[in-house]
């Protein structure tokens, strides 16, 4: 589950999940729900495999979202499907989506950057919680 929260001139993304793989998958979906208002209308036309190295989970989350932002900006892609697997070396993910189609996709926010400010990723009694602030 993910939710958006206001943070001064930025937006925050809060993610809760029972396990880390789901948390990172939901973070990806939450991230793109900020970019594309109708995220469920993004067709699963193109699939990419993404690898991000790292062992510190907070930085791994930052690098994961930063990589998604980079791919989206440089390849003009939006994604709505995320399958993430985390191990001791980092993460591998399969993501699916399509090129931005201005006739079908309702673009909401332009994310300029992922920030370290307020970055949280921790295990709680009921699962995992993450918060990240996005510069829009």
Characterization of the model:
It is a single chain. By secondary structure, this protein is α+β, with helices and mostly antiparallel strands. The protein has one domain (2-135): Archease, Possible Chaperone, Chain: A, domain 1 (3-Layer(bab) Sandwich), CATH 3.55.10.10. It has helices spanning 20-35, 57-75, and strands spanning 2-7, 10-17, 46-53, 77-87, 90-99, 113-114, 120-124, 127-135.
Give the full name of the CATH homologous superfamily. Archease domain
Q: Indicate the multimeric state.
A: single chain
- Work out the helicity level: 25-40%
CATH-derived architecture:
3-Layer(bab) Sandwich
Q: What is the helix/strand order?
A: EEHEHEEEEE
- Radius of gyration using CA atoms only: 14 Å
What's the CATH topology label?
A: Archease, Possible Chaperone, Chain: A, domain 1
Contiguous low-pLDDT stretches (5 residues minimum) are none
Anisotropy-based shape: globular
Using the coordinates above, name the CATH class: Alpha Beta
Brief summary of the model shown:
This protein is 26% helix and 43% strand. With 136 residues, it is of the alpha+beta class. The protein has one domain (2-135): Archease, Possible Chaperone, Chain: A, domain 1 (3-Layer(bab) Sandwich).
Keywords:
2 helices, 3-stranded antiparallel β-sheet, 43% strand, 5-stranded antiparallel β-sheet, 26% helix, alpha+beta, Archease, Possible Chaperone, Chain: A, domain 1, globular, 136 residues
């Amino acid at each position: 589950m993910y939710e958006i929260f206001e943070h001064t001139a930025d937006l925050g993304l809060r993610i809760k999940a029972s396990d880390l793989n789901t948390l990172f998958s939901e973070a990806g979906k939450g991230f793109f729900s900020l970019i594309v208002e109708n995220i469920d209308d993004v067709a699963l036309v193109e699939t990419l495999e993404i690898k991000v190295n790292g062992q510190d989970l907070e930085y791994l989350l930052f690098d994961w979202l930063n990589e998604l932002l980079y791919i989206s900006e440089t390849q003009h892609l939006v994604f709505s499907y995320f399958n993430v697997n985390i191990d001791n070396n980092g993460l591998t993910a399969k993501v699916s989506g399509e090129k931005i189609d201005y006739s079908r996709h309702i673009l909401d926010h332009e994310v300029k950057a992922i920030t370290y400010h307020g970055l949280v990723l921790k295990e709680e009694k009921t699962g995992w919680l993450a918060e990240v602030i996005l510069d829009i």
